[in-house]
Amino acid sequence: MWGARRGLLAIAVVLPALAAGAVWALWQRCGLRGCPDVRVLEELAHDRGAIVLDRRGREVARLHRSERVIIPLDSLPPYVPAAFIAVEDRRFWTHGGIDWRRIGGAALANLRAGRIREGFSTITMQLARNVFPERLPYAERSLLRKLAEMRVAREIEARYSKREILELYLNRIYFGSGAWGIEAAAREYFGKGARELTLSEAALLAGMISNPYILNPRTNPRSCIRRRRVVLELMLSQGVVTPGEFAAADTARLITGHSTLREGRRAPYFIAEVRRLMERELGEALYTGGFVIHTTLDADAQAIAEAELEAQLQAVEAGRFGPYDHPVYRPDADLVSPAGTAYLQGALVMLDAATGDVLAMIGGRDFSDSRYNRATLAERQPASTFKPIVYAAALANGHTPLDRLDDRPLRRTINGEVWAPRNMDDRYADSISLRDALVVSSNVATVRLAEDVGLDHVIDLARRLGLRRRFPRVPALALGTAEVSLLDMTTAYAAFATLGRLPTPRLVVRVEDRHGRVVWQRRPRGRRVLDPRIAYLVTDIMRDVVDRGTGKAVRAVGFRGPAAGKTGTSNNATDLWFIGYTPSIVTGIWIGLDLPRSVGPDASSERIVAPLWGRIMRRVAPPDEKPWRPPPGIVVRRIDEDGNAYSPDCAPARELRTEYFLVGSAPASRCRAPLRNGPARPVRPVRLGADTAADVAADTTADAAPDTAASAVEDTAGVPAGQ
Question: Which of 240, 259, 453, 624 is a good FRET partner for 424, with 20 to 30 A between their CA atoms?
Answer without folding.
Answer: 453
